[in-house]
Amino acid sequence: MPHDYAKANPAPLGLMGFGMTTVLLNLHNAHIVPMGAAILAMGLVFGGAAQFVAGMLEYGNGNTFGMTAFMAYGAFWISLVVLLFLPQWGLVAASSPTLMGSYLWMWGLFTAIMALGSLAASRAHQVVFFSLLVLFFLLGSAEVFDRPGLGVVAGYEGLFCGFSAIYLAAAEILEIQFGHPVLPIGLPGAGRSIAQQHEDLVVQLS
Asked: How many CB atoms lie within 10 A of CB 57?
């Protein structure tokens, strides 16, 4: 079912929730800032809840790809915060590095599937998903193989991933506001707007 553009497009909200939270967490992974409440709060509320809401709105638009991406990554951020808090509350033991790495690799597997789906979308979508795939692989490998330096590399790669999502969200917001493309996103069909491309993606992936 094509997207009804008489309604608001929820994708920029989901992309911003994902992108800004990813940047904030990876400032920590890159050893630029320490872990703190700001990162966990952002992950729970904007990366988690706001993305989940965006996914529910994409469900109403008939967009299976958008729904799956936003609801799944919203659940990822919520689960990550819960994972960090459960040991602090004394409810379960902290995850071993191998278990934590496996958790990240499983999200990498999911992201690999989503990255393949992004091949039907713009180049900007592909950059977001493929860079996220690399991020999960690096973070999981850093845990499993006990390579802290790899985690730092992942942090800088994660900054790129997060900012790429912010860029895509900005492109969609500005096009909607001004009524024409403002930021290039590498459209598969030259000259097609984000609105037209989004409608094509809904048809192809729903």
From this structure: 20
State how far Cα 115 lies from the chain centre. 11
Angle at which helix 51-60 crosses helix 64-88, to 10 degrees, equals 150
Report the distance separating Cα 18 and Cα 166, nearest Å.
8
3-state helix, strand, coil in the chain (%, to 5): 75, 0, 25
What amino acid occupies position 120?
A
Q: Are 24 and 39 in contact (CB under 8 A)?
A: yes
Instruction: Give, as one character, the DSSP assignment of residue 179.
Output: S
Listed residue (36, 47, 101) closest to 70, CA to CA: 47
Alpha-carbon distance of 74 to 138, in angstroms, equals 20
DSSP conformation class of 142: H
Q: How many CA atoms lie within 13 A of 61 on its CB side?
A: 29
pLDDT bin (cut points 50, 70, 90) of residue 191 is very low
Answer whether 124's CB lies under 8 Å from 171's CB.
yes
DSSP 118: G
pLDDT for 67-119, tens place per residue?
999 999 999 999 999 998 998 888 888 899 999 999 999 999 999 999 999 99
Q: What H or E segment, with its residue span, contains residue 84?
A: helix 64-88
**Cα 42 off chain centre by:** 13
First to last CA, the chain: 8
DSSP SS3 for 129: helix
3-state DSSP call for residue 32? Answer: coil
